[in-house]
Amino acid sequence: MAMLKRDEFTSVPATSGDLNALLGRGSEFEGKLTFEGTVRIDGKFTGTIVTNDVLVIGEGAKVNAEITCGTVIVHGEINGNVKAKSAVELHHPARMRGNVETPSLMVEKGVIFEGQTKMEGVEKAAAKSTPSPSPVQAIKP
To answer: Rounded to an integer, what distance in angstroms lies between the CA atom of residue 85 and that of residue 21?
Structure first.
């Protein structure tokens, strides 16, 4: 069984809780994966992945999938489109071939990314954090 490296797992949000499932090195799975919490893939996966939580793609992993999730943290290889509600993190030596749709994208130096990025929700998030100026009113003497 593959061991988790503490430094690889530091970017997982603390609120996600413990690791719920692991597809270890040497494992192969084909189909649809849905889950809650955090799941780490270190083997080969082909199909569809759907969650509102965290997906971690380990350094040796090869994933051929359409992914819809909350956050994706990638150290391995993804071939397919990714739609993330919160964030996508591509850490060296990640390889990403496909389109990414997310409000937050982080790409480390040395990562290979072939695709397009659409960052919807960035303007909405910025607008919510910045208060609207109050309208100017004329003052009568």
So the answer is: 21
Strands (E), the chain: 19-23, 28-34, 38-41, 44-50, 54-57, 62-74, 77-79, 82-90, 95-97, 100-101, 105-107, 112-114, 117-118
82-101 confidence digits (pLDDT tens): 999 999 999 999 999 999 99
CB-count exposure of residue 109 (10 Å: 0-12, 13-18, 19+)? exposed
Nearest CA to 98 out of 68, 121, 122, 71 is that of 68
* 2-39 per-position pLDDT tens digit: 434 434 444 444 334 578 888 999 999 999 999 999 99
Residue the block writes with tokens 């819809």 = 68
pTM, entire model? 0.74
